[in-house]
Structure formats: C-alpha cells, structure tokens
Amino acid sequence: MEAYLLNLAILISIYSILAVTLNFIMGYAGIYSLAHAVFFGIGAYASSYTALNFSASIFITLPVAMAIGAALSLVLALPALRVRGEYFVAASLGLQVLAVTIFSEWKGVTGGIGGLIGIPPVNIAGLEIYKPGEFIFLTVVTLIVVLVVINRLVHSSFGRSLQAIRDSESAAAAFGKNVPLIKTISVVISAALTAVAGALYASYLAFINVESFMLDTSVLIMAMVIIGGTGTQAGPIVGAALLLLLPSVISYLDFLPQTEIGSIQQIIYGLGMALLMIYRPGGIIGRKKVTSAGGSK
C-alpha cells in the first residue's frame, strides 16, 4: 500500500508540473494548446536518449531536454504569432498529430512503437535516485522550483505584459508591447519547463513509448488546468491531484464493473468539466465571476 501511495504521489507531482507549465501560457497568456504532451514527450525522449548513450547525470540530461524542448517549441510559437483562439487550438492539434507520428516512426531515437527500455535512473553527483521514497523528494523539489520560477515571471513586468496580451493583443501593442516576441518567449519557457517533467517521468519508469504522449494526455493536462482554475497558482495542482486520484477511488468501488472503469472515468471528467463551465467557469480555485451589480455568481 505504501509503494502504491508513493507511486501515486510521484505521478501527481509530475503531472502537476505539466499542468502548471500549461497554465503559464493558457492562464496568463491566453494561448490554448493541445500539444502540451508533445513537449512532455520531447523531454522524455531527449533525456532518455542522452542517458542511454552518453550520461545519466541530471546535470546533463535535464539541460539537454530543456534545450531541445525550447528549440522545438518554436514550431508551436510560430503559429501562435499568426493565429488566435480556436485557430491556434487547431494548429496545436496538428502539431500533436505530427509529433505522435514522429515518435512512432523515428525508431533510431524513440524506439518506435516499442519505445525505449532500460532507461538509467537519475544520477546526481554519482548517486542514483530510483527508490520511490527518494524520487518523491526529487519530484516535489522540482515542482516547487518550477512554481517559484513561474511565480516570479508572472509577477514581473514580463508577466504583466503576458496578461495584457491575454486580455487584448491590440491594446497591448498600442502600448508598445512587442506581442510576437513576448508570446514566443512564453511558449519557449513553458516548453522548456515541460521537458523537465518528461525527463523525470522517463527516469522514474525506466521505460517510455508513444502512448504516454498522445492527444488524450494533452486533453487530460488541459482538463487539469481548467478544472483546477486557469490563471491561478494552486488550481493546476488541485486539478492534477483530483484527476489522478479519481481513478484510484473509483477502482475501489466494488459495485462498479471493473471492465467499465475507463468509460466511467471519462463520463465523470466530461460531466465535471461541463458543470464547472456552467456554475464555476473559473475552476475550483478560480474566482467567481462578478456581476455588474457587484455580486458574485
């Protein structure tokens, strides 16, 4: 039971990083992406390839994963400069589909459908971190660092510029903001930090394949942000914990048919998001909307 709870806590920490980094561009910049799992996968594959062929040192695998994730994020940033709203969602969906194809077919780097096995554990100054009790400490510390970095960015002049662009690009441009540059930087930062989660995920499981980085993963991460509360610090973490704990709780309900657990989860996710959009569009942690009369609803 202890091992199960530790494993669940590690996954919640990793997915919290994913949700927090998506919230950075979604909640503060207004960039809605369905390709977040792409950079999750890029971080996982880049760090795994580096660990298998060069060095498993975290001081090498993480920078490599972040650098490659940041560089390839320009593929997402470019359409973000030209399109907005639902058009960008469609563009990010196209990138997600393309990335899955590359992950599946580039066997020399990704291992193809079979994936990569025997990925070495995280190595910190010669010490291998593979026990769940040790790894949970690493993932929680990483989550805290990511939260601090994003919090500092959000409360800086750069963060205020991001929120101005989210509210009105034309108004931000009129006030002298370099909208294309700011949006590009935000996407690059988000992708680089997302790659960190991918590196941790790969080293923890010691095995990865394309199934972990498909469209349903991107949708799940977006659901975590929306349910928890976009544009908030704690919301994405609450959403990640809720959506990862829910399957565990459902699996313990004996009166539910075990063969239908997956379908029941999807129904609950969809129903939960629909109800939140109706009654609390800001999410669980998000603020309630304020009416013109000064009341809340």
Automatic annotation (TrEMBL):
<keyword id="KW-1133">Transmembrane helix</keyword>
<feature type="transmembrane region" description="Helical">
    <location>
        <begin position="185"/>
        <end position="207"/>
    </location>
</feature>
<feature type="transmembrane region" description="Helical">
    <location>
        <begin position="32"/>
        <end position="52"/>
    </location>
</feature>
<dbReference type="Pfam" id="PF02653">
    <property type="entry name" value="BPD_transp_2"/>
</dbReference>
<protein>
    <submittedName>
        <fullName>Branched-chain amino acid ABC transporter permease</fullName>
    </submittedName>
</protein>
<keyword id="KW-0472">Membrane</keyword>
<feature type="transmembrane region" description="Helical">
    <location>
        <begin position="213"/>
        <end position="230"/>
    </location>
</feature>
<feature type="transmembrane region" description="Helical">
    <location>
        <begin position="58"/>
        <end position="80"/>
    </location>
</feature>
<dbReference type="InterPro" id="IPR043428">
    <property type="entry name" value="LivM-like"/>
</dbReference>
<feature type="transmembrane region" description="Helical">
    <location>
        <begin position="261"/>
        <end position="279"/>
    </location>
</feature>
<keyword id="KW-1003">Cell membrane</keyword>
<feature type="transmembrane region" description="Helical">
    <location>
        <begin position="87"/>
        <end position="106"/>
    </location>
</feature>
<keyword id="KW-0812">Transmembrane</keyword>
<feature type="transmembrane region" description="Helical">
    <location>
        <begin position="6"/>
        <end position="25"/>
    </location>
</feature>
<dbReference type="InterPro" id="IPR001851">
    <property type="entry name" value="ABC_transp_permease"/>
</dbReference>
<feature type="transmembrane region" description="Helical">
    <location>
        <begin position="135"/>
        <end position="154"/>
    </location>
</feature>
